Every structure is written in structure tokens, then in C-alpha cells.
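Troubleshooting log. The previous structure file for this entry was overwritten by mistake, so regenerating from the original sequence record. Sequence copied from the archived sheet and checked twice against the printout by T.R.
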Amino acid sequence: MKPYITIALTSILLTACSTSTLPTTNQNTTVPEQKQVELPQDTPVVTPPDSIDTRESEETQTKQQVGDNAQPEWKLHGLLSDVTGGTASGSANSGAKNGAFYMEASFTSLPALSPGYFYEGWLVQSNPFHFISTGEISYDLTKPSNIFSAKEDYGNYTQYVLTLEPDDGDPRPAKHILEGELQ
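Regenerated output below.
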């Protein structure tokens, strides 16, 4: 029972710390218009071999989280807008943690998933155009999130896209839900 309490407290603490460093928006701030990022259906998806697979077992994820108290050094931040006309939103940050590339996105008001579907995150590089999967989002005690870490630096991937994916084994991006520019 103690490991689950430790995991829950670590998750809450990490969420609280990361949320406190996010940029805030007030009534006097103008949010730049978001441009839609097109991820072609026929482009091969590259999943970096050195990345942490977010579909790993809870036990593996727990081992990675326990004892990891380092705080990320955020370099890029962005707000995520719903491109479906819905009310979902989110934010994404990228930077470095423990000497590796680190990205974290969190979401609010996502539509409930139908059986056989999941949400997947993507980082996009504009020039030359390239994108990578950041894996399936996870649900913790506070809100859904997408955490990605890799040895390779993806700091020049300045767009984040969240897609709704059918669980059909096709690795290509499907329906866009949220998009945002990391600046």
C-alpha cells in the first residue's frame, strides 16, 4: 500500500510544481491565433528508440518516477486550442530534465473516449517537416497529461498536436483535437 501512496504524492507534487511554472493568461493578454498543423496520413511515423514509451506498464513507469525529484528546465511554452469547435484546452512545455529532452502537456475538458479509442500526443518540427509521437496520454489523480522524455534533443519541435486515435494498430496520426505553438 505504501508504494501507491508514494506514487500518488509524487504525481500530485510534480503536477503542482509544473502547474505553478506555466504561463498564465489574463484578460489583458492577447493569445496569438493558432495555425492548424497538417500531419499527412501517408508520412511514416518515427518513434525515437531512446524515448520512454508511455504505454509501458504502471510498474515500469513507477520505477522511473520514484526518486526522480529533479525539476524540468522549461525552454518553450504553449497553450493548446481545440480545433474541433469543442471546449477542450491544454498547455505544453518542453525543455530539459536530468540531461535529457523533456516535454509535458496537460489537458482539460477532453471529450470522453469511446471504447477502442485513445488520445495520442505529437511533437512537430516545421522545417524540415517532421513529427514524432509522444505516446498515449495518461490519467492521474488531477487531470490527463502526456509526458515524454528522450536522449535526443527535440527542442526544435515547436508545435504540439493531440489526436484522437482508433486502437487499430495504425501508427499514423488520426483526428486532431488540440493544437498549439510552443514559443
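Residues 146 and 166 are 18 Å apart (CA to CA). Archived copy saved in two places this time.
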